[in-house]
Design goal:
With about 230 residues, the protein is of the alpha/beta class. Helix content is about 20%, strand content about 35%.
């Protein structure tokens, strides 16, 4: 049920943990060896959560996020989706979804396997189409919400919403990006109403340790651009 109003996302190849991955201009990552699409921090129903606390936002964030997710599935032919935590802005989010967003989610879950890894915003997530887990390991790679120094395998996570900020011609440009060290990959936030943390923020650098090098990875045009962020 991809929305024809959304442009087909472009995916570009990069390497991590000895495998090929692909990052899109729409903040998703595709894992060809597993036929899997990985996204983090959808924060579905964030607008309705703010509305319940007196701050009114346009109530279509879940619809737009799920339509972009459907477009990424269509572009890659993914058979599975791994959602890496903070999938909903709070545990009660699924109950607030409007009918169109509910239909989009049901359609996705009918066409591909959806695995929801819980995060700090939705640790009690239940009663949604797909499988809910705290974390998992696939083909020797750990998938979880927040990077941990105790990981023994290469690890893919979310949580931090990394953004690359570059100053040029007196302006600061900001783009969501993935952050990669030798053994850890942190994905950008996929959700429509998600902010970001500077890719060079000390908390992000610490989360990717131990490392010799940390690069921002993003899709520009039809290629993956890798920009040094930190060196030991």
């Amino acid at each position: 049920m991809a929305n024809p109003n959304f442009a087909t996302p472009v995916f570009a190849r990069f390497a991590f943990a000895g495998q090929e991955w692909q990052i899109s201009d729409g903040r998703a990552v595709y894992w060809p060896n597993q036929g899997a699409l990985l996204v983090a921090d959808l924060h579905l129903e964030k607008a309705s959560w703010f509305a319940s606390h007196g701050q009114m936002l346009p109530p279509y964030d879940s619809r737009e996020t799920l339509e972009r997710l459907a477009a990424a599935v269509l572009a890659t032919g993914a058979r599975r989706i791994f959602c890496l935590g903070d999938n909903f802005h709070d545990d009660a989010g699924p109950g607030r979804m409007e009918s169109h967003a509910v239909a989009l989610l049901a359609d996705l879950a009918a066409r591909v396997d959806v695995v929801w890894i819980t995060g700090n915003h939705d640790a009690g997530l239940t009663d949604i189409p797909g499988t809910v887990v705290a974390d998992l390991t696939i083909d020797g790679i750990d998938l979880r919400h927040e990077a941990t120094s105790e990981a023994r395998n290469p690890e893919v996570s979310g949580h931090f919403h990394p953004k690359l900020r570059v100053k040029t011609r007196g302006r600061t440009l900001s783009r969501p990006c993935a952050l990669r060290s030798e053994a850890r990959l942190i994905l950008p936030a996929f959700g429509t109403l998600t902010g970001g943390m500077d890719a060079a923020h000390p908390a992000l650098i610490a989360a990717l340790q131990p490392a010799r090098a940390i690069d921002a990875v993003l899709c520009v045009g039809a290629r993956a651009v890798q920009i040094p962020v930190w060196r030991a």
